[in-house]
Specification:
mainly alpha, about 300 residues
């Protein structure tokens, strides 16, 4: 197995003489799509339902472009000519490519969405419970206020002869003014009790576990687009299964390989995105270098098994 530094050197060697052409082709279609969606959002600014529908259609229609990126980069890495029209290679198998990407997205996203829904449900329950406490407090204040006014009216009638009467002496509302804060305190105590009971902690743990599983699935299906290019005869679900097989034993390595580019992204942030002009193409080519090596290794293993 090659070292990360060797894979990166390969990527740099491929990219340097073709940088501007590759970067221009890579940026062209996303820029056009961005402009189209920007204009569309401005035109349909006051028609939210139609705007959402058009955006959804555009998102579905552009899914095969994910395969186009891999196809162009793979051709570059292998020393072949790259063209703008290669962006649309994925549309030759639109149904299969789209379905494979949707299933991949589902397997990755579901593990993150479920904990989010659970946490949202728990938070909603807490808010509603606090609201019930608050309503109870306001109802109690209202009832006690009516009671105090009734008492005051009765006392005023009894003491009407006394010209020095001060009705503030009979304002019983102050006696019950602390009921609302007390109910708020009860609401806070309820939240503490809920978290203390383990439900809140469980939700947080589920969120962390969900994120970890999503990352695992992302690594497992990292080669789906590559396989859609290389093995176009396979069905959608077969590409996912094959990606899982090829990435078996390589997921952690690919994770570390991806992390090795963090410094480059930080440089991109520091330079207000300018460095990303180099970083993004560099990462794309380096990723293909990794996939080529892993795929070659997998094919060698399959060949050895057949000989046995």
């Amino acid at each position: 197995m090659k070292k990360f530094s060797e894979l990166k050197q390969e990527a740099k060697a491929v990219l340097r003489p073709n940088f501007w052409r590759y970067t221009g082709i890579l940026a062209l279609i996303p820029t056009i799509i961005f402009l189209v969606m920007f204009v569309e959002s401005k035109i349909l600014e006051k028609q939210e339902a139609l705007d959402s529908l058009v955006t959804f259609i555009i998102n579905i229609a552009t899914i095969p472009l994910e395969v186009g990126i891999v196809y162009i980069t793979l051709q570059l890495f292998r020393g072949n000519e790259i063209k703008v029209k290669q962006w649309f290679e994925g549309y030759k198998k639109f149904g299969k490519v789209t379905w494979a990407e949707i299933v991949k997205g589902f397997f990755i996203g579901i593990w993150f969405i479920v904990p989010v829904i659970m946490i949202t449900f728990i938070a909603t329950a807490i808010i509603l419970q606090e609201s019930d406490f608050r309503n109870m407090g306001e109802s109690a204040n209202s009832q006690m206020g009516s009671f105090s006014q009734s008492m005051m009216s009765s006392d005023l009638e009894d003491l009407s002869i006394d010209k020095t009467f001060d009705k503030d002496e009979y304002d019983f509302k102050d006696d019950f003014s602390s009921s609302k804060p007390q109910n708020n305190i009860k609401g806070v105590e309820f939240v503490k009790d809920l978290v203390g009971s383990g439900i809140g902690i469980t939700a947080i743990v589920l969120m962390i576990v969900g994120i970890c599983i999503s990352v695992f699935m992302t690594l497992k299906y990292a080669m789906v687009e590559y396989i859609l290019v290389e093995r176009s005869e396979l069905k959608a679900l077969e590409t996912l299964r094959l990606s899982g097989k090829i990435m078996n034993g390589q997921k952690w390595r690919f994770f570390l390989f991806s992390l090795s580019f963090v410094g480059w992204f930080l440089l991109g942030i520091i330079t207000v995105g300018i460095a990303l002009i180099w970083v993004i193409p560099y990462m794309q080519v380096a990723k293909i270098a990794f996939f080529e090596e892993v795929n070659t290794r997998y094919q060698d293993i399959i060949a050895e098994e057949k000989q046995i």
